[in-house]
Each structure stands twice: as structure tokens, then as C-alpha cells.
Amino acid sequence: MKVGLAVHNFPPEFLGGTEQVVLALARAHIAAGDEVFVLAGSEERVPGGDLRREDYDEVPVFRLRRDPEENYGLEGYRTTGERITDLFYEERPDGVHVHHWATLGWDVCQRAAALGIRAGVTLHDLWTACPRFFRRPPEGTRCPAEDERDSCVDCIGADMPEQSSEQVAEGIAKRDEQLHRELKCATFLAAPSEAQARLIEHHLPWRGRVEIVPHGLLSRIEEKATPRGPENPLRVGTFGNLVAEKGVDLLVEALGECGDQVELIVSGGAPDPAYVEGLRALAHERGVPFRWTGPYDAGDRHPAMDLDLAVFPSLCDESYGLVVDEALARGVPVVVSSRGALPERARHGGVVVRSGGVMPLKVTLSSLLRSQRKLQSLRDAIPTTFPHINEAAARYRGFFGHAEVLQ
Q1: pTM above 0.85, yes or no
Q2: Is 392:216 a contact under the CB 8 Å cutoff?
Q3: In the chain, N or C: fewer CB atoms in 10 Å?
């Protein structure tokens, strides 16, 4: 079987959660005997756009770059479509699996279908319903219910001052129409969690079945973190891409009265270095011992190995929560916000706190700091097995007509 995986970016240019999943899925397909290529967008621009062949970790990658005039907005891209059609015609995959469209254009499934190629979709966020990706509007704007769009005009219009409200409304309606056509061409539509599936059913006009396919662990994990004794400060930390939406500032605030009982360890890349400096300044002001270890990759010692408790106070409706699985699989209990799929991932071995406020997080962390017994109880509740990306690949192969589980 030959599979094309389409995604809005890919390493080495960028490696976020969606890109990590696509890379691991490509490896899983290859391990199952499939032929794979990745169609990846880019934030780089070249006059007229282009499509160039790269290779990353032995995975063939076709990098699609747009024209400098083609910026993210409510319209598609002029230069991408024909290049995608030409690629699919030349590569002739048995299936195309779309993971994101943001830099590719909104007709990837349609172009595959026009060539008689089956296409399926996994929705990693709410981009198909929200041009802001995560339904996190500017202050003073409230997201609409279901698939209404009235308040979207003000929300999106704030970033498009050159357009009238009528023009923005027309652009949103056109975007919705194009994406609805795209989803109708999908052989399957999948979500990585029950929470994400519910959001899709609530905010998109999709009336078919939403397949729930957990990403699972992206690699086999054998190592376990060793908890330190009560005579040592509790090592509390978080890891992943460090952006404001992850709520790390709330974690700093919540630890503000713990003094030398804790060490706060933060790991991961920071697209905006000023955000980390702001965290460092806040920690100093609150008297929280703070250490940022910087970015890490698959070959490095995993940040969870140096933690007693991992905390993920995200402000977004997370569609899965890879970091939660990564901590739990290493024997590290977690505290997560109530947004999106995080409570599903932390069902055993974790504590769920209300999202967005410091006080619920502060109360929970204070309780765990005072009780080694509670921490040990969480450790004891951590599952011994976790879903794995190989199982996800087998499910997707089944959707395309080739079901065979790789152990």
C-alpha cells in the first residue's frame, strides 16, 4: 500500500504535536511494509511558489512553498492546487491522509478524489470551524454556539481592518463552503479523542461517523522516572512547545507560596523567547525556583525523567495530549486542566482541575505537596499499558482497505 500524508508543516522546519504524529505515523506505515510520502506545507515563500523534494529521517517529503503574496487568511492559495494534483498524479498513492490544510489550500481531498484516490482526514484541532484554530477569541468576543458564525465576524475582523464587516462575513461563508465540500470528499473523518469528536460533531456540519483513533505513544517507552524522597524539594514541571496558550504562567503563579518545597522545571522550544523570559521574571517575583532546560528532541533524555509531578494547565481544547501519555508512561503522575481531551488522558494517574484560574491549580498542588501518600496513590493508579501509534496506523490502513496490526 502507498500512502500520502498531508500536513501544514514538517521537520526540520517545524515540529509541533501534529507534525510529531505525522512523522511517527509515517514510520509506522513503513514498518508495516507500506510506501509513504509526506506532502508538507511551509512558512517559507518563494516567488511563484514551488514544490521540492526533501528527505527527513528516511521519509520522502515534498515541501510545498507558497508565493510571498499568499498569506494566511480566509481565502485559498493560487499556486498550490495544481502542484498538489501533479504530485498525486505522479506518485499515485492508494490513499491520501490529510492532517491539516492551513498552508496547502482547502481542496487536497477533492484533488485526490478527482484522480480516483481515496482520501481521509484526521482533525487535530478546530481549524475547519475556526480560522484561529483553537476557538480562543480576543478578549471581549465570545465564540458562537454550534456552527453559527455571527461573532466570528468581529473576531476575525479585528485582524483584517482593511475589510468591512460584510466582506469578512462573505469570506467566512466562502471558507465554510469550501471546507464543507472538502470534508464531503473524505472516505473517513477521524479524531484522536472523544472530546475532539464531540467538538467536531458540535461545530461542523459533518453528519457522518467520526472515528476515534488515539495517537498513542509515538515510540516504545521502557524507562521510568525515580521519585525522590520527602527530604528533597518536589520537582514539578511541564514540557512541550512553550506558548501562552499552554498556561505555564498559571503554574508559576500557583507555586508562588511554596518556597523551597518545590523546583519548577520547564522544557521545550519557545517560538517567542520573550515568553520564557516573562516566566522567568514572574518566577523570580513569586520566589519560585525556576529552570528552563530548552528544546529537546527524541534522542535526548526525556524531561519527564527528571520530574516528580508533571503539570499541563492548557487553556486550549487540546485534541489529544501527547505530553500526558509521555509523562504517565514514565511513571510520572500528572495534573491537567479540564479543557479538551486532557481529562481523558489523565483518567488514571492524574488530577483534573478547572481551566483558566490560578486558585484550583494552587489548591491541588498544595495538597499534593503536603502528602506523599496522595502522590504515591496517583503513581499506583498509572496504567501499565498505553495506546501506540502502530495501532493507529493499523486502524487507518483498515479505513483505506488494508487492515493488519503491526505488533
Answers
A1: yes
A2: yes
A3: C
